[in-house]
Fold:
Amino acid sequence: MTNLPRLQVLARDTLWDRAYAALKSALLEGRYAPGDRIILRDVADELVISLTPVRDAVNRLTAEKILERGGVGNGGGATVPLLSADQFSQLMAVRSNLEPMAAAAAAAHASVAQLDVVEASLVEMKRSVSEKLNAQYLVAHYRFHFGLYAICNMPIVQEIIESAWLRCSPTLTLALPDYIPGLKRYEHHVAALAALRRGDGEAAAAAVRADIESARIDICALLDKS
Structure:
């Protein structure tokens, strides 16, 4: 998972907010795995900014229980936590309830142009699976789901979904060494998009729920073995 840069260089304005946003994006897109160390100096160098805004961003993510405080040296930092099976299952239960709701709501609002954007992420998922590009797959997978939920016009629901993703996304990467997730769950994504194209919110919700539940079962089994 080293074939994509994790973070993008930032302009020198609103650095605290932008450092926070950059770290959140990296976590949501699966660019950090459980146990990864987030070293302040390394992040500051990668973003070409000072330590202070990075430290503030990491402190906020730690307060939100997305990261764990870690005495990792070289400017301090934090660690991406490894969730227990129970913790992961709880987060996936949140997703399994809210994301189908968002998908159903999206069916009532989606335009052809919006669904074309979502489909572009689906195409990238398929390409990444065929070429075994795990990092690109995870980015496309995140963009597919959040492109879909952006259509639902439910900003509070979207915020809660994002919070659950931030805590469980690193753990989702645990399945990648053993299999490419799209080989098993890609059809759920195809079904969700097809339902949205038809304006069938119930079918879109069912496809999203099936995707989440499949991932929950597989990864909880891995966590139980660890």
In short: The mean pLDDT is 89. The domain at 15-79 is CATH 1.10.10.10 (Arc Repressor Mutant, subunit A).
